[in-house]
Amino acid sequence: MPIPNRALVLVVDGRKMLFFRNEGDTNQIDLRTEAHEERDDASFDRELKTDAPGTAAAGAAGGEAHRPAMSETDFKQQEEDNWVKEAAEKLRLRALRGDFEHLCIVAPPKALGVLRKELHKEVEKRVVCTINKEMSGRPIPDIEALIVNHTKAEEPADV
């Protein structure tokens, strides 16, 4: 489905959150920046960790010879997931205010998965397009071209 005039476009990943508004129409997308936020990525994993990963007891039969290590918590991924959840909350607030009727989401696979789990039902009703691609560092014309190509691919062929 083509992106209608005044549709909201969210481009998000674990570090950036970009909100655009389509000031064009369904034939000519013209994205204008409404908000741009970037997470401070200054914290390093080693600064967040307090201890080495633990081990799980293998049980009486396993003895001391086999103690599998528990997987280490990925704090950086947790921070990125929380950033994407924050984007979902911003969408919820905007949807409940009636700020947009149509929404296009562009996000890489992991971020899109986290975002989909967090979307409010009012936001879900407004989603007209989701694109599984990392685009937060790309210029606006590249994002516009991606959306145009994606929406053209979804249109049924003329018979």
Key attributes of the depicted protein:
159 residues; alpha/beta; Nucleotidyltransferase, domain 5; 19% strand; globular
How would you describe the overall organization of this protein?
The chain is of the alpha/beta class and 159 residues long. The protein has a single domain, classed as Nucleotidyltransferase, domain 5 (2-Layer Sandwich). It is 35% helix and 19% strand. It has helices spanning 45-48, 75-96, 109-118, 121-124, 140-154, and strands at residues 8-12, 16-22, 31-38, 103-107, 127-132. The protein has a five-stranded mixed sheet with strand order 3-2-1-4-5. Helix 2 packs across helix 3. The protein is globular, with a radius of gyration of 21 Å. The chain starts with 7 loop residues before the first strand and ends in a 5-residue tail after the last helix.
Kindly estimate the percentage of residues that lie in beta strands according to DSSP. Answer: 15-25%
Instruction: Provide the domain count.
Output: 1
Highest-level CATH class: Alpha Beta
Broad shape: globular
Mean pLDDT rating: 85
N-C termini distance: 18 Å
User: Structural class, from helix and strand content?
Assistant: alpha/beta
Q: How many H/I helical runs?
A: 5
CATH names the topology as Nucleotidyltransferase, domain 5
Fraction of helical residues:
25-40%
Tell me which CATH architecture applies here: 2-Layer Sandwich
Strand and helix order = EEEHHEHHEH
